Structures are given as C-alpha cells and as structure tokens.
Amino acid sequence: MYTFHEEPPSVEQYNALRELAGWGALDEAAVAQPLPNSAYAVVAKCEDEVVGFARVVGDGRLCFYIQEIIVHPDHQRKGIATKFMEHILGFIGRNAVKRSYIGVFVGQGLEGFYERYGFWARPTAVMGPGMMQFWDDPEFNASFRGG
After folding, report:
1. What is the pTM of this model?
2. Where are the domains of the chain?
3. Arithmetic mean of pLDDT, 115-133
4. What band does 106 get if pLDDT is binned at 50, 70 and 90?
5. ∠ CA(98), CA(100), CA(102), 5° rounding?
6. What is the CA radius of gyration of the chain?
7. Fold held by 1-57+69-96
8. Is 64 within 8 Å of 87 (Cβ atoms)?
9. ∠ at Cα 85 (81, 88), nearest 5°?
10. Of 1, 136, 19, which is closest to residue 9 (Cα–Cα)?
11. Whole-angstrom Cα distance, residue 99 to residue 112?
12. What strands lie across the sheet with 40-46, from one edge to the other?
C-alpha cells in the first residue's frame, strides 16, 4: 500500500530516484536548496521507503511547471503517477487564477498520460513535445490547439 506525503524528498532520495530513472544524480549541494523551495512537492512511500516523487516549480500563482515525476521502476504502473497528478492539480486548483500557465516537458511516449489532464502538445525539432494548458479556460486552450 502506498501513502502520499506533501513534502520534498531528501537529497539522497531525490538522487537515488534520478539514477533509477536514468537521469543521473546531481550535485548534493546544488540540490539541497531548491528541493525545499519547490512550489509543491509530494512523495510516495511504500513501507516508509520513498518510491517516487513529484514536484512543481514556479511562482505558485500565475506560473506552474511540473518539473519532475519519478517513480521507482519496481513500482511503476501501479497508479502512483496518477495519484501524483491528482495531488499536483489539487495544489494548482487551490492556488491558480484563470489562465495561469502550467507547463511540463514530456518524455517520449508519455504524451497520452498528460493529455488526460488537459495538456496539449507543442512539438519541437530538437526535443520531445512540450505540453501546457491555461488554467480554467477550456475555450482559450482550444484556440491554441486548433479545436
């Protein structure tokens, strides 16, 4: 059973999950300050072990960026990322104003996951598509995605 806690992971937990995701660890001194300064963070635990985390950066009112969602490979496809999105969108819903910008850069093949939450693709030639939405304005969003 998983529990979710609105707190950032420790530097060690953060780097361990980055390594498992293939993103590589970052300098601990560089990570120590930004993690607790995230606009929002949530961790998933299984028997007191952190098995995933998600965090949002931004100003907490007008601009939100889903910086990372990482789930330990042994715990993927068990609804953890979906639960993270529920927590993230709950936080945004409590703090955003109409047309607040919500951005996320998406790993290849994960576009469908974010589309379920109202994000739309913005392809680039160099990187995978960026996705975004303007909070609480479906018509405004439709004008940008062509439908």
Report:
1. 0.85
2. 1-57+69-96, 99-147
3. 75
4. confident
5. 135
6. 15
7. Aminopeptidase (3.40.630)
8. no
9. 135
10. 19
11. 22
12. 2-5, 40-46, 49-58, 63-71, 101-105, 130-134, 120-122
